[in-house]
């Protein structure tokens, strides 16, 4: 966990975040959530976030908060911590769908809902907002024209929940199946930016080290030359060896002990001359943290001195048993004069070692990035400040079927055939030059083929100067095609090609909403094939399937463009006919449909007569909710079946006085 980055997000989007991290196998990132009480004063949310951050302290290498500026109070958070970052959007819905689309729906008075919020709507509306049903309906009626669910597919109960919420606040709803693709790209872009920040931080560290080394080398070059072999930068051990050799030459001591101290004043190494000599005095000085720059040894014929540079302790040197002890004061003064240069030389050696390590690390990172650029499955362009192509990878050339010589030096606008007006080109370039990342989902035509492309562009900043741009092209044509296929599978009956029951329920709810808002009336037909079970039992299911396909084709042929036909069960069909309520017109249409369905159906060497029964209910006369309207049309249809008239029937209130038990039981036995 220590090496992982914790991504912190509102609990309303936690399952989506976890699904993306699991799907993309982003094992270096860990999802965690906080409770955001929507529309409540935000000091509470900020306090929750601060508690989570404190709990996560030293648990993860970095914590990154994803939030919206409109929902989460982050003003009091310390955003300058190196192990903490924030990605903010204007609204949390921008995680799931483009901001422009969100604004379009908001401008139309939509109340946009995420699946996570919807899953706990009772908690927010009743427990947090303290709205009873009358208050909720009054509030939503005044401010909201329609509920809009951004369906990510993560919550299985979303349709049932939106129906409950819609009934509670008395507002119509629409379901927009957004899926996880946009959210996945949003998360992957944040992760990519985090990785880029890590690379840039290492580059900045290398730059500072280089500047520091150059400054020190410049300031002390003349002094370092005085040391002969020490004038050239070398490893720390070699520097210390030369220093000790110089001390031997100057002072002719009987004992020299050097204690090398690293970060946090921890012992790096202990060097003794001669080997095996008593080290206890120096260790005692180290443990007791010697006061001042120096002190005399116990014997009185030597001294102990700190070696430091710019306030940082680098080591402690003990020189004892000097041959001419009477000159110890002179020796000490000489050593104090040059000890600062010793500290400089050792410090420079350490910095140089770090510089070499950093340089090697950056070289590895550069090689990795070059391989990533070269082998990435996404097309990548590197542009200069003037937006001309400086480099291009193989994937881009393959994607747009071009050659490198035809791309280098070309302006990106000319290369992609972008129009200033239609593609908002000037706006995107302005954002890039301001240091912002630009994300575009668009269509690009190349070699007579139009592609759906996701474009990610971001500036290249070196030493606080804009030097160019990277533009990444991801071909999302397959994803777009799959989305179309998924919608088709979700709402279409595979046998007949008609809309299925799920589509029927959604369109029936939509028709009822239109009635509530605009008083648009409509008629519901429920049609059932007569004695279909007998057909299956006698001729087999393959013939039964042929019958269903034939009936579906006949029904489609009877429909206007504004009408909708559905297969809602085994041999049960439904028609929603808008702007139709006059009894004589409805009767004529019902007769025409049933007449079209009456036919002789050939099977091998025999035939059987095909017919159907129909029940009719009209909104608003027979009901203004889905369950009532469907139930009454169904009762009317089974009434026809019971009479075996093979015709149609409007729902009549007298049916309520009759027992429907016989009808239902007969339907189960398929007597009709």
Structure in words:
InterPro entries: Biofilm_reg_signaling, DUF1638, GGDEF_dom, Nucleotide_cyclase, PAS, PAS-like_dom_sf, PAS_4, Rev_trsase/Diguanyl_cyclase. The model is unreliable at 40-45, 215-226 and 665-672 (pLDDT under 50). A hairpin with a 4-residue loop joins strand 19 and strand 20 (572-578). This protein is 46% helix and 24% strand. It folds into five domains: 1-90; 96-179, no CATH class; 214-355, GAF domain (Beta-Lactamase); 377-477, PAS domain (Beta-Lactamase, 2-Layer Sandwich); 492-669, Reverse transcriptase/Diguanylate cyclase domain (Alpha-Beta Plaits), CATH 3.30.70.270. With 672 residues, it is of the alpha/beta class. The strands form six sheets. The protein has a five-stranded antiparallel beta sheet, covered by helices on one side. Strands 14-13-17-16-15 form a five-stranded antiparallel beta sheet, with helices on both faces. It is elongated, with a radius of gyration of 40 Å. The two termini are 66 Å apart.
């Amino acid at each position: 966990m220590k090496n992982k980055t914790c991504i912190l997000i509102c609990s309303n989007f936690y399952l989506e975040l976890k699904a993306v991290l699991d799907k993309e196998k982003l094992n270096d990132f860990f999802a965690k959530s906080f409770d955001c009480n929507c529309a409540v004063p935000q000091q509470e949310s900020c306090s929750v976030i601060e508690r989570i951050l404190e709990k996560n302290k030293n648990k993860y290498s970095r914590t990154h908060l994803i939030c919206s500026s409109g929902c989460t109070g982050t003003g009091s958070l310390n955003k300058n911590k190196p192990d903490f970052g924030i990605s903010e959007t204007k609204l949390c819905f921008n995680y799931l769908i483009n901001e422009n689309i969100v604004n379009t729906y908001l401008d139309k008075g939509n109340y946009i809902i995420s699946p996570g919020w919807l899953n706990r709507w009772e908690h927010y509306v009743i427990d947090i907002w303290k709205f009873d049903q009358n208050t909720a309906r009054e509030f939503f009626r005044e401010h909201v024209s329609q509920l809009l669910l951004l369906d990510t597919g993560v919550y299985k109960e979303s349709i049932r929940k939106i129906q409950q919420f819609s009934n509670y606040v008395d507002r119509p709803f629409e379901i927009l199946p957004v899926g996880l693709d946009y959210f996945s790209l949003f998360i992957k872009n944040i992760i990519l930016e985090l990785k880029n920040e890590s690379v840039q931080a290492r580059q900045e560290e290398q730059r500072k080290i280089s500047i520091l080394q150059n400054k020190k080398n410049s300031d002390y070059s003349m002094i370092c030359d005085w040391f002969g072999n020490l004038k050239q930068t070398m490893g720390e051990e070699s520097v210390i060896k030369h220093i000790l050799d110089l001390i031997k030459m100057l002072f002719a001591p009987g004992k020299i002990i050097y204690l090398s101290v690293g970060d946090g004043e921890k012992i790096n190494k202990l060097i003794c001359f001669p080997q095996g000599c008593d080290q206890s005095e120096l260790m005692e000085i180290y443990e007791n943290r010697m006061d001042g720059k120096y002190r005399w040894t116990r014997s009185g014929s030597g001294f102990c001195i700190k070696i430091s540079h710019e306030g940082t302790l680098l080591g402690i040197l003990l020189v004892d048993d000097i041959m001419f002890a009477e000159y110890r004061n002179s020796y000490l003064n000489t050593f104090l004069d040059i000890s600062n240069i010793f500290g400089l030389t050792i410090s420079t050696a350490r910095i140089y070692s770090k510089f070499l390590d950093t340089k090697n690390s950056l070289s590895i990172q550069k090689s990795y990035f070059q391989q990533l650029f070269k082998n990435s499955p996404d097309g990548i362009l590197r542009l200069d400040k003037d937006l001309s192509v400086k480099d291009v990878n193989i994937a881009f050339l393959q994607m747009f079927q071009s050659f490198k010589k035809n791309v280098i030096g070309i302006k990106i606008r000319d290369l992609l055939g972008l129009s200033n007006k239609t593609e908002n080109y000037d706006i995107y370039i302005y954002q890039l030059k301001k240091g912002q990342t630009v994300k575009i989902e668009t269509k690009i035509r190349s070699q007579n083929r139009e592609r759906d492309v996701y474009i990610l562009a971001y500036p290249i900043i070196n030493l606080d100067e804009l030097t160019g741009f990277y533009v990444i092209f991801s071909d999302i044509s397959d994803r777009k095609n799959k989305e179309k296929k998924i919608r088709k599978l979700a709402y279409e009956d595979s046998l007949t090609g008609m809309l299925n029951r799920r589509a029927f329920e959604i369109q029936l709810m939509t028709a009822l909403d239109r009635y509530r808002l605009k008083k648009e009336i409509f008629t519901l037909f429920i049609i059932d094939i007569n004695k279909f079970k007998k057909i299956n039992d006698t001729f087999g299911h393959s013939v039964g399937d042929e019958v269903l396909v034939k009936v579906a084709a006949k029904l489609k042929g009877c429909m206007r463009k504004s009408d909708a036909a559905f297969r809602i069960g085994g041999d049960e069909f439904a028609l929603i006919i808008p702007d139709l309520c006059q009894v004589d017109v409805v009767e004529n249409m019902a007769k025409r449909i049933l007449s079209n369905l009456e036919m002789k159906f050939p099977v091998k060497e025999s035939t059987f007569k095909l017919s159907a029964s129909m029940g009719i209910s009209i909104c608003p006369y027979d009901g203004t909710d889905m369950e009532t309207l469907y139930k009454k049309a169904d009762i009317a249809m089974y009434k026809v079946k019971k009479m075996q008239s093979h015709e149609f029937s409007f729902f009549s209130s007298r049916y309520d006085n009759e027992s429907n038990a016989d009808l239902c039981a007969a339907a189960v036995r398929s007597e009709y």
